[in-house]
Amino acid sequence: MGGPACQPPVPIQASVASAATPADDATLRGGYFGRKFCLAMNPYQQSVGQYGYARSQTVDSRARFIVRTYNHLFGALALFTLIEIGLFTSGVADSIAVSLLATGRGWLLVLGGFMLVGWLATHTAQTARSLPAQYAALAAYVAAEAIIFVPLLYMADKIAPSTIKSAAAVSLVGFGALTGIVFVTRKDFSFLGAVLKWAGIAALLLIGAGMLFGFQLGTFFSVAMIGFAGAAILYDTSNVLRTFPEDRYVAASLQLFASVALLFWYVLRLFMSLQSRD
Known about the structure:
Mean pLDDT: 77
Number of helices: 10
């Protein structure tokens, strides 16, 4: 049988309640107990509203985390650019590049250092808890990457200066496209974690073998590492969207920065290789 719809209780002022007649009092008490009866018969009427509010709060919190993460990423990219400008305009970059490239295997040492620093950045992003530790790790990593990039940028500036801007533009467009794929499709790319782990180990082994046996890692290695960097961006972006702790937005930006730097490094190497063939 149908019954009257459950309505929200109407606030009753104390002055009105005190002036109520016995009939009015019975009506009010009936309305109160009717409300209790409605909630007893349909407890979800109240809990659904509470659940919706909690869900809204969770979505807002995640959105703030994502905005903070990408703001810190863009700040890290700006800091990296300013450090490089300072190193090259002061002449310090020339000294760093000459010292790192003085030996025949210096370039492989730079590649190995780049991969090792990237691994350390990932490890730090996964373990840093306090906000000061996250900021310290991000600043140290950006500074280390700026120094490691000096020999590559130095060689690019000598061989084909135009490749630096082209590689930067392609890297940013690629990063934006891959980020858009994750945010639009909402696909979970966490399965790439194991693939990236073993591919990274294989890359380090190849670099180590090149240092030991004196062979160079050419164009195909750069293409493969561009694919590796793209997969890393998908994986990191998926983690930012889904699982990264919301109090570690600085660490999340560090991990994204490491992936963007990796992409830029190998895009620039590829462009330099192609330019040298012309």
